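>> received
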Amino acid sequence: MTGPGPGRDLAPEPAPEPVPRPGPYGSLARALAEGPLLLDGGLSNELETYGCDLSDTLWSARLLVDDPDRITAAHRAYVRAGARVLITASYQASFEGFARRGLDRGRAAAMFGRSVRLARAAADDAPGPGAGAASGGAAGPVWVAGSVGPYGAVLADGSEYRGRYGLTVRELERFHRPRVAALAAAGPDVLALETVPDLREAEALLRAVRGCGVPVWLSYTVAGGRTRAGQPLDEAFDVAAGRDEVIAVGVNCCAAEEVDHAVEIAAARTGKPVVAYPNSGESWDPRRQAWHGAASFAPRRVHGWLARGARLVGGCCRVGPHDVAALGRAMATTEPPGADAAVG
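>> returned
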């Protein structure tokens, strides 16, 4: 498959629709300083439960064009599960991918904006401050995170789990910048620079978001205590230290067993709140286009994550609303004696 060409001039046309609007009850950074928040789970697996075919290279982003109501329904399922932060369906979106579906740059930019508005619509349906558990969802504000997936995700060949694409930091920055601009124009509360496999791509993303006017979090996908590209985690998190626009750092789309170690390093190296949203524990086979292995996502593990500095926690691939609800219940309980020993 031929990937996008980051060496070209990729300056985006202005998105025609969105009106920026911050979260209704103050900044997400301020909320994280006050205590932990529950993230949503995997958007794709929830869409698949509705019968959506996500085999297209745009993955969930295809539905921004073909069936946006399904996306809103999936977001609402996570709000009902108690999620306080919703991640948009733009992870695998790109101007090149939309062009292959016949969308010009203006319409493609509008799809990035639509991803934010769909999540915002679900967030606006959440119970207001002071709502009790009987309200059937998150009580209080719900924030919207614009997903900026890695270059490898756009290739749709599993290379987001390898990194090291053979591109320079400058080339990666030029690829990501128009995606960032289109999302930022829609006014999300934060940009999620997520599933980043390589610290060189993290550097490129942080350059791309400079001056965009929206805070960001940076989360790596990791394995064996290192980035997927094999770099030490202390070096990986150092790229975000001292950057005011970065309000949280951490890991996602990794096995739950990787989280404790990564959270501890992220907190120590940056002094920032930590984001942690692992996948189910299963592994993706890009050749077979299928998941395999046993699930190991256990909400009880959250006590260890919180103790090490996690403040924004949820799930990624194959973690659904039921799992997120269980995670929220675990977060609301006092850490049981011997919890660390129990979760391993």
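>> DSSP finds 14 helices and twelve strands in the chain.
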